[in-house]
Design goal:
It contains 10 helices and 7 strands. The chain has helices at residues 14-25, 36-47, 65-79, 85-90, 113-119, 149-158, 179-187, 198-207, 236-246, 249-255; strands at 50-51, 56-57, 142-145, 168-172, 191-196, 217-220, 263-266. The strands form 2 sheets. It has a 5-stranded parallel beta sheet. Mean pLDDT is 80; it is low at 1-6 and 17-45.
Length: 267
């Protein structure tokens, strides 16, 4: 079999030599270990650890809070490449608000969600009664954010153990009610845990019917992936309203509280 050998510049004619030099100079340089190559490697490591049987991305739950915050920033830049540094900084999630949950060993599947929330609901050595609700209407102590209405319905059913007549586990997603009906429902209901999609939760907060005044934790359904291998962090239509939700001014004020602030839990 003939073996191809690159041409020797010493045996080329002047015109051939010039073309050869141009082809070398036109070859794009290799990307270094920093920058885009490192970002692609991080994304590859995250996307390569999919548990198709359980429908989860296993590696996300093992990230510490600093890596999670960095990954959020990376996703933000991927979806909005023209953001200025100032705008990008405003869309960062605060690292100190993220609870460390990487040491939780159980698979982050739906059946384990109630136990996960119970495990990380304590703050300052005190345990929160998840089957309760503030007296104020539309003021949940817990919000669970997920990518789609069907998934939100499944999560709502899984959390029914925390529901009482005075502490509803509420469906807060678009396919369940029209926005005007959802606003009326939320404003008249004592809610312990609200489960919804990012865009609908933002709309309810903007309307004033849903309040963050009594909020103690936001649980992001991060590990779940659909049949197309997409999670809430992978789709622009879910990621951007999620960032809008998590970086709201009224929530940012509560993140910085040393006693009784809002925790971000990534399931």
């Amino acid at each position: 079999m003939a073996v191809f050998e690159p041409p020797d510049a010493r045996t080329m004619s002047p015109s051939q030599s010039l073309k050869h030099k141009r082809s070398i100079s036109d070859t794009p340089p290799k990307i270094t270990a920093t920058g885009k190559k490192r970002q692609k490697k991080t994304s590859s490591l995250i996307n390569d650890d999919l548990d198709f049987e359980n429908g989860i991305n296993s590696v996300l739950g093992r990230l510490n809070r600093s890596l999670l915050a960095d990954y959020f920033t990376q996703r933000t830049k991927n979806f909005a490449k023209d953001l200025s540094l100032v705008d990008l900084d405003e869309k960062r999630i605060p690292v100190h608000a993220v609870r460390e949950t990487g040491n939780w060993q159980r698979p982050r599947i739906l059946d384990n969600l109630p136990e996960f929330i119970e495990e990380f609901s304590s703050r300052l050595g005190k345990s929160k009664d998840l089957a309760s609700s503030p007296e104020e209407k539309g003021s949940p102590h817990t919000i669970v954010v997920t990518a789609a209405g069907l998934r939100a319905a499944h999560i709502t059913r899984s959390l029914r153990k925390f529901e009482t007549k005075d502490a509803i586990v509420a469906k807060l997603f678009a396919k369940h009610k029209k926005l005007i009906d959802a606003i009326e429902y939320v404003s008249k209901t004592r809610i312990g845990i609200g489960v919804g999609t990012p865009a609908r939760l933002v709309a309810l907060l903007d309307s004033g019917s849903l309040s963050a005044d009594k909020l103690e934790r936001i649980v992001v359904d991060m590990s779940h992936v659909d049949q197309k291998k997409r999670g809430i962090l992978d789709m622009k239509e879910t990621f951007e309203p999620l960032v809008q939700l998590l970086t709201r001014t009224d929530l940012k004020r509560n993140y910085i509280k040393e006693d009784g602030g809002v925790d971000l839990l990534f399931f």
